[in-house]
Design a protein that fits this description.
3 strands; alpha+beta; elongated; Ribosomal Protein L30, Chain: A; 4 helices
Length: 126
């Protein structure tokens, strides 16, 4: 019988020890400071330039020789403008003295500039 009480005492002591250890951990957790200070790292996406893209403008200049219709037809044929867009460009060329009718790289704009100047309309690439 003493042996039985000894075993029960031993088991109860171990259980009590486990219980006390658990409570101790819980108490430590309650004493923690729960303020949140994340260590933020800012990362920046960087685009890698694979081709140098120079954005130039094809500028058509106003003159007193060419008609609106001729300039409009030229912008439709050479630059691929829709009729309404070509009409708006022609009006801006007339009122402002010049207008950038197309943007792009030099390789794209050069043949268009040459085609416009062949029709005796003054154009430059800027």
């Amino acid at each position: 019988m003493v042996l039985l009480f000894g075993i029960i005492y031993y088991l109860n002591t171990n259980l009590l020890f486990v219980f006390i250890k658990t409570c101790s951990n819980f108490t430590k957790m309650n004493n923690l400071n729960f303020s949140y200070y994340p260590q933020t790292e800012t990362t920046e996406d960087v685009d890698v330039l694979t081709e140098e893209a120079v954005n130039l403008s094809l500028v058509v200049w106003n003159d007193e020789v060419n008609t609106f219709e001729w300039v409009i037809d030229t912008l439709i044929d050479v630059c691929g403008h829709q009729r309404e867009q070509a009409e708006q460009c022609a009006m801006l060329i007339h009122t402002k003295g010049k207008y950038a009718v197309k943007n792009g790289s030099y390789e794209i704009l050069k043949p268009q500039k040459e085609a416009i100047t062949e029709r005796l309309i003054n154009a430059t690439i800027e």
